[in-house]
Amino acid sequence: GGILYILKNFEIGCVVENGARAEKNNLYREYRKILREKKIRRLIVREGDRMSVDSARLYVLNPKGEEEIADSNDNSIVLKLAYKGRGALFCADITDKTIAGLNHYGRFLESEILKVPHHGGFLGDEYIVKNFLNQVSPIASIISVGRKEYYKKPLENIINILTSLNSISYITNRDGAVTAFISEDYCKLKPY
């Protein structure tokens, strides 16, 4: 739900989305209303799409290329940022179904920074999740959780898996906003 605040309070030139339609959802209707009023461009992406700015490359790994996308967590946009030999993987709200489908990317999933899927909540089959997190092998993992977390996220088993991989977990309701600094020989995260 944070997108409305961002759209209302920042200058936005373009939003990148999966194109799912949720007209019955009040948040979605307000989102589309703001886009129209502010004349903000919508860019709908699918697996295989790429974007770049200077030497930074952004690869879309999900959703798949189906014609109409249902409004579900597993249709969330998964992005891989590649910059100066470093990587960050942004997993949105995907669960084990989509996680298993990402396995064909193999070593391309390796990333110094991971935005942990589904706020560190229940992701499904633990074997699939462990295998995926092991493939990514992040140095730092960011778990985005609201200040008042009603769903008891992140789950302890997700933290334990990340810890077993020697990944440092930054949890936003504990550590605050996190800034990442990346260069060819340097990758550092720091909470505000």
Summarize the structure.
This protein has 192 residues and is α/β, with parallel strands linked by helices. It is built from six helices and eleven strands. α1 runs parallel beside α2 (26-38).
Please explain how this structure is put together.
With 192 residues, the chain is an alpha/beta fold. It has helices at 3-9, 26-38, 96-101, 126-136, 156-164, 172-175, and strands at 14-17, 41-44, 50-53, 56-62, 78-83, 86-90, 113-115, 140-143, 168-171, 178-183, 186-191. The strands form 3 sheets. The protein has a 7-stranded mixed β-sheet. It has a two-stranded parallel ribbon with strand order 1-2. α1 (3-9) runs parallel beside α2. The longest helix has 13 residues, at 26-38. The mean pLDDT is 87.
Number of helices: 6
Q: Which structural class should the secondary elements be placed in?
A: alpha/beta
Give, in spatial order, the strands making up the sheet with the most strands.
3-4-5-6-7-8-9
Helix content: 25-40%
N/C terminus separation = 22 Å
Tell how many strands the DSSP assignment holds. Answer: 11
Report mean pLDDT, rounded to a whole number.
87
Q: What fraction of the residues are assigned to beta strands by DSSP? A: 25-35%
Described by the principal axes of the CA atoms, the overall outline is globular
Taken in chain order, the helices and strands follow as HEHEEEEEHEHEHEHEE
Radius of gyration: 17 Å
Oligomer: single chain
Low-confidence stretches: none
Describe the main β-sheet briefly: 7 strands, mixed
